[in-house]
Amino acid sequence: MTARPTSLTETARSLRSDRRSVVEHTGEACDGLDDREPEIHAFVPESDRRERLREAASALDTQYPDPTDRGPLHGVPVGVKDIFQVEGLPTKAGSDLPTEALAGPEATVVTALREAGALVLGKTHTTEFAYFEPGPTRNPHDTDNTPGGSSSGSAAAVAAGECPLALGSQTIGSVIRPAAFCGIVGFKPTYGRVPIEGVIPVSPSLDHVGWFTAEVAGTRLAAAILCRNWPPKAPGTSDRPTVGVPEGPYLQQASSAGLEAFERSVETLDAAGYEVRRVPLLEDIEAVNERHETLMAAEMAIAHGEREWYPAYADRYAEATAELIEDGWPVSAGTVGDARAGRRGTREGVVETMDSEGIDLWVSPAAPGPAPEGIDDTGDPVMNLPWTHAGLPALTVPAGTVDGLPVGCQCVARPMDDERLLGWGTDFETTLATESEQ
Amino acid sequence: MTARPTSLTETARSLRSDRRSVVEHTGEACDGLDDREPEIHAFVPESDRRERLREAASALDTQYPDPTDRGPLHGVPVGVKDIFQVEGLPTKAGSDLPTEALAGPEATVVTALREAGALVLGKTHTTEFAYFEPGPTRNPHDTDNTPGGSSSGSAAAVAAGECPLALGSQTIGSVIRPAAFCGIVGFKPTYGRVPIEGVIPVSPSLDHVGWFTAEVAGTRLAAAILCRNWPPKAPGTSDRPTVGVPEGPYLQQASSAGLEAFERSVETLDAAGYEVRRVPLLEDIEAVNERHETLMAAEMAIAHGEREWYPAYADRYAEATAELIEDGWPVSAGTVGDARAGRRGTREGVVETMDSEGIDLWVSPAAPGPAPEGIDDTGDPVMNLPWTHAGLPALTVPAGTVDGLPVGCQCVARPMDDERLLGWGTDFETTLATESEQ
Question: Which residues of B participate in catalysis according to the annotation?
């Protein structure tokens, strides 16, 4: 099928104007699901979705007849990864655990979207507990391929045009990688910039909320609602960033086809007038990868132990997930402390290099290559790991294709430089959109 | 010396009226420190305190000539335990670490007090990192005795009438115990009810912000500023609580003199018409004590490891503090998870008993007995531990004396029942104030 993502900014503009009723638009969104879900499986099935949404849409139409009263996301249908608590919808987190065990108060970000006028179109499929055991979702660009994970359903839903915005989360590479595989924009803000309350934890010191849209402008519209202290007026893009390419063993983790595509992106940026500097970075990537894995395993053991999920339901966990928790169980408090200190060390090291080399933005492949074939494996998050580890804001924009499948250019900025990152991202999006497979 | 705490509500009322200038009042507060500090040592010395405060007071006088514009704590001098970050004042946390290593953004609650009009009179002495290694503070009721800890300076400052409000924190019994030893009111709200950001951590899942005042009404005034979602109109005290006495091994941890004084309080409540029920509770107190210690040690190892304080400065830690961290270092992630689950189990168990026995409020001795002699030991927090472990709101009100030293009655309510607890506390305060040593 041809993936046709819809623009969040255009959808929101249209719904805030007087032109269409929310009931009408929501009905069409449900029609879209009837049409595409049998192939994509982005959403967790829900028996009375259409009726639930009709009621909510009708309430919005009644309550806000005057366009000037409407919220910035008035009537916009959004997908929500099924690790976020949503009032009125059960949370399964892609697991076999009873929903009562996983229940909790609505996630802060979901409430924020609702208060902005959005309607929850549905829960989207996640890998089990946002780790690696995949759900049924398929890549809208080629349904033989994985959409990536763990935010599989959210990425596929936006890519298939089922909704113009979907929430995801990233602990290693669960937003940036599926966004790239699905040919859309994915954003994971600075660690701590977005409230994480009401999201089933993987590893609290590494968990980030993120989201998917068709275009960077849409991601910025959502950022203004979801990020703490987002300024009313976002900065312009007039100050062109100096771009860094992180040379060394980190970059070499990409596939040769992925690296070729990435080098074409770098050439495109260079040709467009960007100053590009190649700088050695993350020479200790093996240690970083190992530390990330250790910290994640230990914190997942704590999180799933403290809620008594794993002690009570160990036999319902997929093998790989149980293994991670078992690996984390014996990790010592001292090791956890050291790993968190190392995480800050990585962040400070990257920032120092940016300062000394005058770099505003790192670019790198959003994944080792395009989406792998099959849906039993969501692909490798290794290109995303160090940036998540360091808690730096990351954005991926579509950057051409490899073997007919989309790849993304991952842009990473300084901590709390989310606003400028999204400002610069708009021009990157335009510049790199001209690329196609050579 | 005679301890003469000053009322927060009266001080605030006077400063909000037109009667006195903040400059004048602040000057008197500084005079009070000159007078009492040589004996009490509640405050961390500060070279230009008077000048700093004169400027801040003068700014308030200039900015708010109209009483109706003034905040609820306009010009009120407050003490702040030296584990809270305060803009413009260094944090030492009672330790020998360099202040640069401990620096951070201002604590959310300190900013909230400032926004309500309060002036930070100074940092108050804490035991080292809010554990057990004492500072120089003495008990205003008898300077041969400890004020308790870890919030030693804050309790002593309020008891000595140096300020009508002071912030403390409690991880085992660091608010309730010193408040009782110093003959004042201490309050530790429900776990999570008060923002902990900007406070040097002991053990994040056990750390609570709390505070000290002369009277329950003052504590309630502060609660409205410091607690999340405090309702504009606090509930009345017309609904008399059914009072529970937690019989069994927990209670037996008190000294015989402490228990005698407590039984006099219970008789007084009974005579005042309260329904008192004696119910077995916390039969597993030994396991609770052990679990608390394990969790605290592990989380302190993580906290002091992740910030690289202990790895870099181990030789500057007092022996007992270093021992706790060393004990916590090898504790496994699985044990941390189990301990946190056990903590929830204790809370649920206490609440179930309250439900089944119709109890609204537990009373117990705020400490095993009155303040021990000497200032090398801040006393035993064992009477406070299970309530902190369970995250339940706790209030202590003065309840007579033992050997001429004050003791407190510790009142504990259901989770998030802070409002009613403070409502009931006012009558308890009056009822128990009639007690004196038999």
Answer: 81, 150, 174
Q: Tell me whether residue A391 is in a domain.
A: no
Q: Are strands A394-402 and A208-213 parallel, antiparallel or unpaired?
A: unpaired
**Would you call A293 an interface residue with chain B, using a CB distance cutoff of 8 Å?**
no
CB–CB contact A341 B301 (8 Å): no
What percent of chain A shows pLDDT beyond 70?
97
pLDDT tens, B293-303? 999 999 999 99
Contact A331 B333 (CB under 8 A): yes
Whether chain B has a CB inside 8 Å of the CB on A206: the answer is no
Confidence class of residue A237 from pLDDT cuts 50, 70 and 90? low
| Strand partners of residue B188 | B394
Tokens of A141: 């660009």
DSSP per residue over B295-346, as a string? HHHHHHHHHHHHTTHHHHHGGGS-HHHHHHHHHHTT-BHHHHHHHHHHHHHH
Residue-wise pLDDT tens digits, A172-191: 999 999 999 999 999 999 99
Report the pLDDT value the prediction gives residue B235, as an integer from 0 to 100: 63
A41 in a domain, yes or no?
A: yes
- Cross-chain Cβ contact B333/A302 below 8 Å: yes
Quote the domain boundaries for residue B112.
Answer: 1-242+367-438
Specify the number of domains making up chain B. 1
Task: Compute how many other C-beta atoms are within 10 angstroms of the C-beta atom of residue A183.
Answer: 25
Contact B333 A329 (CB under 8 A): yes
Between A and B, how many residue pairs show a Cβ–Cβ distance under 8 A?
88
Instruction: Inform me whether the C-beta atom of residue A104 falls under 8 Å from chain B C-beta atoms.
Output: no
Say which residue the tokens 């210690």 belong to.
B293
Q: Which residue in A297, A306, A341 is closest to B337 by CB distance?
A: A306
Put simply, whether B436 touches A (Cβ < 8 Å) is no
What CATH number is attached to the domain comprising B143?
3.90.1300.10
Residues 6+ apart with CB under 8 A from B393: B187, B188, B189, B190, B193, B412, B413, B414, B415, B416, B417, B418, B421
Measured between alpha carbons, how far is residue B298 from residues A148, A218, A311, B37, B345 in Å?
Answer: 36, 43, 20, 36, 19
Q: Which residues of A are tagged catalytic? A: 81, 150, 174
Q: Which of residues 338-357 of A touch B (CB under 8 A)?
A: 338, 340-341, 344
Closest by alpha carbon to A386, among A351, A338, A421, A335? A351
Contact A161, A149 (CB under 8 A): no
Return the C-alpha torsion angle B407, B412, B416, B419, nearest 10. Answer: -60
Q: Which of A297, A311, A334 sits opposite B330 (nearest CB)?
A: A334
Residue-averaged pLDDT of chain B: 96
Instruction: Specify the DSSP class assigned to residue B148.
Output: -
Query: Is A248 inside a domain boundary?
Result: no
Between positions 29 and 68 of B, the ones with CB within 8 A of A are none
H/E/C letters for each residue in A309-331?
A: HHHHHHHHCCHHHHHHHHHHCCC
Give the pLDDT confidence of A352-401 residue by residue, as tens digits: 999 999 999 999 999 999 999 999 999 999 999 999 999 999 999 999 99
* The residue to which tokens 């690996």 are assigned: A327
Task: Tell me whether residues B333 and A337 touch, CB distance under 8 A.
Answer: no
Chain B residue closest in CA terms to A339: B306
Residue B287 in any domain: the answer is no
